[in-house]
From TrEMBL:
Keywords: ATP-binding, Isoprene biosynthesis, Kinase, Nucleotide-binding, Transferase. It comes from the Bacteria. Its EC number is 2.7.1.148. Belongs to the GHMP kinase family. IspE subfamily. The active site is at 8, 132. Pathway: Isoprenoid biosynthesis; isopentenyl diphosphate biosynthesis via DXP pathway; isopentenyl diphosphate from 1-deoxy-D-xylulose 5-phosphate: step 3/6. It comes from Fulvivirga marina. The keyword Cytoplasm does not apply. This is 4-diphosphocytidyl-2-C-methyl-D-erythritol kinase. The keyword ATP-binding applies.
Amino acid sequence: MVVFPHAKINLGLDILSKRDDGYHNISSVFYPLPFEEILEVLPYDDFHFEASGLAIPGNVDDNLIIKAYKLLQEQYKLPPVHIHLHKLIPMGAGLGGGSADAAFVIKALNSLFDLELSGESMRILAGRMGSDCPFFIKGETVLAEGTGTDFSPIAVDLKGKYLVLICPGVHVSTAEAYSKVKPRIPEKSIREVVENIPISEWRHCLKNDFEASVFPAYPEIETVKRTLYDSGAIYASMSGSGSSVYGIFNEEPANLTLKASWKGVLKG
């Protein structure tokens, strides 16, 4: 079975408060991006995982794909499988690539072995892999609140807009980004902004709170955002805790010199 885990971007990211458990309450629109990698899952004689494409740093046993398989294997006594990931979504970029991989493994195993898990059951399992993972079970645009796992529908219309995604090649630690952030309650909620204010005005009222702590430490990321605006973007922002930055344009920019990791017309 071959599936195609996809990236996501954050439209706004408000860090509202720090919780007693050490996590933060946030508000953000998770928007699916058709920037995909390739994941193959097949029955096999013994468990085997291999990867191609972008190099994946760290201990292989810490990979969320392996953790997701082991979680389902223990609960449902699954037979061994061979998993091959062709990695295309940069890591440490705020795009959720690793989370998407874990979620798509859960979905693939559910189909491959007829586990008949509901969407809600798969979201609960995915939540044990990380806060972004449940989003990728369904992969539809949502307003994410709480720790990023409380989802509600939201009306966002980007159909026909041209998006350019730039990954500057630096890795931003999410823990580091959170350690320097100052929680705040904005004047207008993200829902109010994206549902009621034209995209052309988002620049002034739709913020990613991580930028205030990440840009001073990584000025090259701020430079990318500025360059996107200079090239005609109607809205530009860092995604998640970085380091990727995207620009939304009315049409494909003709004078952009930055190398894009992904670019294309949005379908909705």
